[in-house]
Design goal:
With 143 residues, the chain is α+β, with helices and mostly antiparallel strands. Helices cover 21% and strands 37% of the residues.
């Protein structure tokens, strides 16, 4: 059984496709990062900004690091849920946390680090003011 998710998080249900598995029908490890991205993109949308809209504003959210821990395998044909929330907001970046689960069973956890980059100059920039508050809504409450 998994720990409860933070109150604000984004979920994406995924049916494991054959192309995502190896010969044994087990999901290849790299696909979990793709599932993280699906959940992160959903979080952006739920925060009020489709990621394509963010890019149209001249901003990129560059991945600078990723961590992933596997607990149990996902298999072809199963339905899993990828969940994402904001773990930390910094002046120029953000850290997202993730959980992949199947019927309440924890399959994988992880996080990704990102820095905001100006698309034209390709240089790091401050967290966009209009995006900071909506992203902070996905931070777990401090207790």
């Amino acid at each position: 059984m998994t720990r409860p998710l933070p109150p604000r998080h984004a979920d994406v249900e995924i049916e494991v496709r054959y192309a995502e598995t190896d010969q044994m029908g087990v999901v290849h490890h790299a696909n979990y990062l793709v599932w993280f991205e699906l959940a992160r993109t959903r979080l952006c949308l739920e925060a009020g900004f489709h990621y394509a809209e963010i890019e149209k504003r001249g901003l990129l959210l560059l991945v600078t690091g990723a961590e992933l821990s596997y607990r149990a395998p996902a298999r072809y044909g199963e339905r899993v849920v990828a969940s994402c929330w904001v773990e930390r907001v910094g002046s120029r970046g953000v850290r997202f946390a993730y959980r992949i689960a199947r019927d309440g069973d924890l399959l994988a956890t992880g996080s990704t680090e990102h820095v905001w980059v100006d698309a034209a100059s390709r240089r790091p920039t401050r967290f966009p003011t209009e995006l900071e508050a909506p992203f902070r809504e996905f931070l777990p409450a401090r207790g």
